Amino acid sequence: MEETLRLQMLEYPTYPVDVVLDTDAFNEVDDQFALAYLIRNQEKLRLQAIYAAPFFNEKADSPKTGMEKSYDEILNILNLAEAPKYRERVFPGAEHFLKDRNEPAKSEAAQDLIERALQHSKEHPLYVIGIAAATNLASAILLEPSIRERIVVIWLGGSGFHCSEIEEFNLMEDIPAAQVLFDSGVPLVQLPCWGVVESFSISKPELEVYLKGHSPLTDYLASHAIASVEEWAETPMWTKAIWDVAAVAWLLNDNQRFMKERTVPCPKITSQGRYHFTEGRHSMRYVYRMERDPLMTDLITKLRKI
Predict the structure, then answer these.
(1) Which pLDDT value is given to residue 306?
(2) How far is CA 76 from CA 79, 83, 95, 113, in A?
(3) Is this prediction's pTM over 0.90?
(4) How far is the C-alpha of 180 from the C-alpha of 169, rounded, in Å?
(5) Which tens digit of pLDDT belongs to each residue from 134-180?
(6) CA gap 89, 121 in Å, rounded
(7) Strand, coil or helix: what is 194?
């Protein structure tokens, strides 16, 4: 893809835009906030499909189980949000991570992404929000490279360039998928977790005061977050990063009210999951600072909207 075209596609869009979401919804408590926030912004962001992404940790004994649990959690949030029309647009993703950077993991999600992308154009791209390992997204690119000129990928993953500790979950779960994403030349926005978006966090008092008792959806978001954090919190005063929300918010950031970003050369991802900066690389957009309070205000306001 030509650099000029890539930069044009990375400019903020004219609303409304078509969006798909790729999420490991059962893995954490923030995916649920991001999906709910996306649903509550339908006047600008037209949700076309939701993809269940694989994950593997203490909550799932295999990537397949993680994907299946995420699929069920997506349906749960749609029910709580009283958004049944999206149920038929939820697709199961890959049952395993990429074996290497050349072999895709085929799934209904990857196939749906390809089909939807091919209905779009460089002038009116499909916006792909990824808040999980990039398995489904990379697989779609490997299966049909031409979609790179029809989509913009907004991916929350990795750490800030300034961080010495870069072992972030979404990147480390599927390093080959991240390598495909960063090497493909697809118009890419990176929202780094550690060192940048981790500052977008919510406290227990905020969850209790602003969300509890307002609706079944907000009750669940608050109660689920509090219960999950208090399983491991070491002190009674805690905050929880709900960073996945930021990936949705990037599409609402046309006046830089929620985050600051810049255009940078896209680094390579090494086999150890580290950044390698080299000359001659294509450009991407890089978020380097969050404006926590304006985004939190908008999130709470939208979630409380009936």
Answers:
(1) 58
(2) 5, 10, 20, 22
(3) yes
(4) 17
(5) 999 999 999 999 999 999 999 999 999 999 777 899 999 999 999 99
(6) 21
(7) strand
- For the chain, residues with pLDDT lower than 50 are none
In this prediction, residue 167 carries a pLDDT of: 83
Distances (CA, A) of 193 to 96, 132, 143, 171, 200: 23, 11, 28, 10, 10
| Count of structural domains, the chain | 1
Q: Is the Cβ–Cβ distance between 23 and 244 less than 8 Å?
A: yes
Q: Please give the angle made by the CA atoms of 86, 90 and 91, to the nearest 5 degrees.
A: 160
Q: How far apart are CA 141 and CA 7, in angstroms?
A: 19
Looking at the DSSP bridge assignments, the partners of residue 153 are 128, 188
CA angle 143, 147, 149 (to 5 degrees): 145
Count the neighbouring beta carbons within 10 Å of the beta carbon of residue 286: 21
Q: pLDDT per residue over 118-147, tens digit each?
A: 999 999 999 999 999 999 999 999 999 999
Q: What is the CATH number of the domain that holds 295?
A: 3.90.245.10
d(CA 155, CA 191): 6
Domain span holding position 144: 3-303
pLDDT at 173: 97
Cβ-contact 69, 55 below 8 angstroms: no
Q: What are phi and psi of 100, to 5 degrees?
A: -160, 175
